[in-house]
Every structure is written in structure tokens, then in C-alpha cells.
Specification:
Length: about 300
């Protein structure tokens, strides 16, 4: 048996072990409720910033059908920080009312150290961690994620039993992910997240999405982030191609339609839920999302399932 055949067999066995009848109809809806610092939001759109505001938005989104929330460690002015005070307070408030899956970001500005960028992983309630798979031009600047840095963050996720969400901005980053898997820093099944539409990264075009999906190894799961989204056209394409995770939220774009701003993050989730159900699928619950993404059982909140 060749090495590629062995990998395929491993991926198939992992896939079979995690799947249950009806799982092909389940779509995980993620929400990133806090807009980028400096984002130009439409009039009347309030960016949640304080722990109470973020928690309220998160719970409302969970009630609307989201099963994952993606959060950065920010202060109450929206700036990224290594101080987990606001982050911990937010999770305290969320856990009082919801068992939504917590996705902690390892993104951040160049001014933050490696430790500071992965400080969210230090909170035991974080179950999934975003892991950027390479450097990319963002407008006129460079978002730096060197391979040694990625190894550092991947090792920290393994220590904390956090599932890596592999953020892919360009096709070569898939190759990097497979290299790190072969080195032992990542393990199957891999969970990719295609980040389309960022200035300098691959454009938000269904042809690019199709190409990225075609590069994935068997047994992988994948999702979509559409930066600057103003409608659900890319989400529709991803849904038709078999995406497991679709994300909305003010971080990606505060628009229900091209000319209609959302009243809330929850409205963005409701809009996506309607699309998912029109396609004959159903939004996954938090417990179903934990099983499909294979989070660590001890990470699940009391009363939840893994």
C-alpha cells in the first residue's frame, strides 16, 4: 500500500467513526459578532464591544441557530490585547445562558508576540482555535505568519486540546497544512476554513472556491469566510459544494442584502439559517458541532455533549 493510499484509508476510518445517519444534512453555522477595529459600519449598526454586549449578541445568535462563536481577545474599546480579563468575563456571561462552541482566535497585529496572539487558548473553555496557515498581503501591509510561528501555535493547541481551524487565504497554504500534518503538528481529520475576499488574498469567486476544495485531502472538512460579504452568493456556492461550516457576523460584513444593513448579528444568522433550510439542510446544534469537529469531551460545558 502506498503512502497516499494509507492516508486515504486513515481519513476514511476517521470519517466513518465520527459520522452518524443524517450528518450529511448538518451545516455548522459560525458567527464572528465583533467588527474589525476601524470598520466603517452602516448608520444605526452598533458594534458589540463590552463583555455584556458581546455575550448578549452571542447568545442571541446561538438562539437563532449558530453553534460556534469566533472571538478575539479584545478590550472594551475593541482593540486586541493580551489581557484576558474582558475575554474571560465575556465567556462567563455566555456560559450562563448558552452552550455555544467557543472558537478563540490566534490572529493579531504584528505588535503582539507569539504568546500574546494565542492567549485565548489559555482559557479552558476555548474548544476551537483559528490557525493561520501562512503570511498574506492585506492591502499595503503583510499579515505575518511564518511556518515556525504556525508550529508554535499548533503545538499550543495540541497541549490545550484545542481543535485547529486552518485558515487558508491562498492555495499554497493547503500545502503548508499537509506539510505540518506530516511533521506531526496537525492530525487528521483536518478542518480547513477558506478565507476569501481579503485585500491581497484570493478573491471571493466561486471558481476559486471550487479550486481550493479540489486540493483537499480525503476526509477533510471545510468552511467559508467571505470577507466584506454583502449577500449570501458565496455562502450559497459553498453550501452546494458541501461546506461543513458557514460563517457570518459583523467581522465579515454587516449586510443582509447589498443595500440592507443588518439590525443585529442574530439577523445575519437567521438569514443564513433560512438559506441552509431552503437547501434541504439543517443547522447543527452545539453538541452536534462538537461531535462533527471532534472537540475534546472535557471542553464541553456541563450538560453538553462532545
Amino acid at each position: 500500500m502506498t503512502r497516499s493510499e494509507q492516508r486515504y484509508e486513515v481519513a476514511e476510518s476517521l470519517d466513518a467513526g465520527l459520522r452518524q445517519p443524517g450528518d450529511d444534512r448538518k451545516v455548522i453555522i459560525a458567527v464572528a459578532p465583533v467588527a474589525h477595529v476601524g470598520s466603517d459600519l452602516p448608520a444605526g449598526t452598533a458594534n458589540p464591544l463590552t463583555p455584556q454586549e458581546v455575550a448578549d449578541a452571542t447568545v442571541a445568535c446561538a438562539n437563532a441557530g449558530a453553534s460556534i462563536v469566533h472571538l478575539h481577545v479584545r478590550d472594551d474599546a475593541g482593540n486586541q490585547t493580551a489581557d484576558r480579563t474582558w475575554f474571560a468575563q465575556t465567556l462567563d456571561l455566555v456560559r450562563e445562558r448558552s452552550d455555544v462552541v467557543i472558537n478563540g482566535s490566534t490572529g493579531g497585529t504584528a505588535e503582539l508576540s507569539l504568546e500574546e496572539r494565542c492567549v485565548s487558548l489559555d482559557d479552558p473553555r476555548v474548544e476551537i482555535g483559528s490557525l493561520n496557515m501562512g503570511s498574506v498581503n492585506f492591502g499595503d501591509s503583510v499579515y505575518i505568519n511564518t511556518v515556525p510561528d504556525i508550529r508554535f501555535w499548533a503545538s499550543r493547541m495540541k497541549e490545550r486540546r484545542v481543535v485547529p481551524e486552518l485558515e487558508v487565504f491562498n492555495p499554497s497554504m493547503i500545502t503548508t497544512a499537509l506539510r505540518l500534518r506530516d511533521e506531526g503538528f496537525l492530525k487528521d481529520p483536518l478542518h480547513f476554513n477558506f478565507c476569501l475576499g481579503f485585500p491581497g488574498a484570493i478573491a471571493a469567486d466561486y471558481r476559486n472556491l471550487f479550486f481550493l476544495v479540489s486540493l483537499l485531502p480525503p476526509g477533510s472538512e471545510w468552511g467559508l469566510i467571505h470577507e466584506g460579504m454583502r449577500d449570501l452568493s458565496m455562502a450559497s456556492a459553498a453550501l452546494g459544494m458541501g461546506a461543513r461550516v458557514l460563517r457570518v457576523g459583523y467581522e465579515d460584513g454587516p449586510w443582509v442584502r447589498a443595500d440592507r444593513p443588518a439590525r443585529s448579528n442574530a439577523q445575519l444568522v437567521e438569514n443564513l439559517v433560512e438559506l441552509v433550510r431552503c437547501a434541504g439542510k439543517e443547522p447543527a446544534s452545539p453538541s452536534e458541532a462538537r461531535r462533527l469537529i471532534a472537540t475534546a469531551p472535557e471542553k464541553a460545558p456541563r450538560g453538553g455533549s462532545a
